[in-house]
Amino acid sequence: MATTVVYPCSKINVGLHVLEKRTDGYHNIETLFVPHTLCDILEITDVSGCQEDVQLFLYGQNVPGPVTSNLCVKAYRLLAERFRLTPVEIHLYKQIPTGKGLGGGSADGAFCLQLLNRHFSLGLSQKEMLSYAAQLGSDVSFFIQQPPFISCLATGKGDVLEPFPIDLSQYRIELRFPPVSVSTAEAYAGIEPRPRKVALRDLLLQPVDTWKYVVRNDFEETIFKKYPLISHYKQALYREGAVYASMTGSGSAVFGLFRI
């Protein structure tokens, strides 16, 4: 019985501009994805004599929704459309909470794709892996990279990635988790897209000390009105000495950058 284990990492968003509604129903955005060390644990085990193609076992943090909607299961069945995969059990220990804007589900899907590629010796190229990732979700592609992960500027619907030379080694990133969950659909329902005179990349090239005044997450305006507790958590980070604090993604987690 062969077993393989990986550790899907999380991400934070430094700045997030929602620029316009697309004809396909998505939105064009610009944001900086920064990897974070908070991770899940993902294990794939071969099973014999099993009637099901893939079984998912969940541990740790609660994961809402049916098993069939989990991106690990979707990753397996996506590859099974092309390759003859033998039955497996997927064991997923969730440490990245859902509904917090940390990309845990996307990371799980991406790492599962890479794990299945290795587990079954499929020989998929990086380009092919990215193509499969795009079918799972807009930001899944960010996690199709080998450690050490690098920060990427994301545009389009979050799937056009460009390595971004930013050095945060002099800062520690602290996460806070308000007891509120915000779905991506809920966040976008309240947003009013608008173009920017200054691109996010130019704002991020300014000193980190200035980010507090110029680098925004567009979702904060409406989400904070609906869930003021999230704003209180952000302000608490500033009181603790953060040089920059923000909600990540569509929320509800917030993070602070603290000088080391």
Give a brief outline of the structure.
The protein is an alpha+beta fold.
Question: How would you describe this protein?
Answer:
- The chain is an alpha+beta fold.
- It folds into two domains: 3-163, 2-Layer Sandwich (Ribosomal Protein S5, domain 2); 171-259, Alpha-Beta Plaits.
- Helix content is 28%, strand content 28%.
- Strands 1-4-6-5 form a four-stranded mixed sheet, with helices on one face.
- The relative contact order is 0.19.
- The mean pLDDT is 94.
In percent, how helical is the residue content?
25-40%
What is the architecture of the largest domain at the second tier of CATH?
Answer: 2-Layer Sandwich
What general form does the structure show?
globular
The end-to-end span amounts to: 45 Å
Secondary structure layout:
Elements: E1 3-6, E2 9-21, E3 27-39, E4 41-46, E5 54-60, H1 71-80, E6 88-94, H2 104-119, H3 126-136, E7 152-155, E8 160-163, E9 171-176, H4 184-189, H5 200-204, H6 211-214, H7 219-226, H8 228-239, E10 244-247, E11 254-259
Helix pairs in contact: 1-2, 2-3, 7-8
Task: Give a quick set of tags describing it.
11 strands, 8 helices, 260 residues, 4-stranded antiparallel β-sheet, globular, 2 domains, Ribosomal Protein S5, domain 2, 4-stranded mixed β-sheet, Alpha-Beta Plaits, alpha+beta
